[in-house]
């Protein structure tokens, strides 16, 4: 067994280009999900809010599952938060996408909570694959 000093002294390697592209794609999908959720939750209040938050949670968990790490949930969550912040910024003309209603605040706070939950959730210790036999 190698000692701890040799394991920590290894230089960092650049991630593969495909992984970088996947993270950038998930970042963009997060921003698009924020835009769609902002329009949906305001247009069809109780059902639209639940549908928008479910879509955001699905994207966060799907990103984590697709990339096989918790970092896969962070990329769409970051895109979602950037998109929401850009949508809440008011313009000098007074136009903005989010209203001052309770549904908007539930969408903002609920989406942030889902992002944190999905980024910190673990997949457990169950092995994954076709050749795995569980329970015998």
From TrEMBL:
Keyword Isomerase among record annotations: no
Swiss-Prot/TrEMBL keywords: Membrane, Transmembrane, Transmembrane helix
Chain ranges passing through the membrane: 20-40, 47-67, 73-90, 102-124
Domain of life, per lineage: Bacteria
Entry-linked InterPro entries: DUF6113 (IPR046095)
Protein name, as recorded: DUF6113 family protein
Organism annotation: Streptomyces phaeoluteigriseus
């Amino acid at each position: 067994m190698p000692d701890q000093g040799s394991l920590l002294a290894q230089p960092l390697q650049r991630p593969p280009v495909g992984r970088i592209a996947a993270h950038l794609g998930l970042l963009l999908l997060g921003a698009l999900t924020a835009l769609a959720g902002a329009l949906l939750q305001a247009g069809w209040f109780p059902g639209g809010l639940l549908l928008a938050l479910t879509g955001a949670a699905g994207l966060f968990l799907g990103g984590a599952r697709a990339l096989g790490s918790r970092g896969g949930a962070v990329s769409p969550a970051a895109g979602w938060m950037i998109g929401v912040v850009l949508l809440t910024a008011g313009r000098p003309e007074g136009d903005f996408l989010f209203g001052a209603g309770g549904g908007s605040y539930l969408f903002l706070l609920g989406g942030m909570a889902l992002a944190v939950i999905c980024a910190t959730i673990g997949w457990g210790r169950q092995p994954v694959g076709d050749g795995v036999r569980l329970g015998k």
